[in-house]
Amino acid sequence: MAVEDVRYAPETCAHCEGAGTSYCDKKGKVLVRQPSRTCHHCDGDGCIYCGFTGWEGLMAKYPSCTW
Ligand SMILES: [Zn+2]
Ligand SMILES: [Zn+2]
What we know:
By secondary structure, the protein is an all-beta fold. Helix content is about 0%, strand content about 15%. One zinc ion (ZN) binds near residues 13 and 24.
């Protein structure tokens, strides 16, 4: 079985633009699967599909999110 090489990198939370909210665990950044892509539902503005972070492929917090 091949090891899935999935990389994540911190991206600035679109909801608070780095200020830190409950959506990004008050870090201002969220871990996003690379290559990072803005949420196609909201174009990076933030919606329920991306947990209001504006990004697709969020790590762990929203594992049920499909592309
Ligand atoms: Zn935030
Ligand atoms: Zn969205």
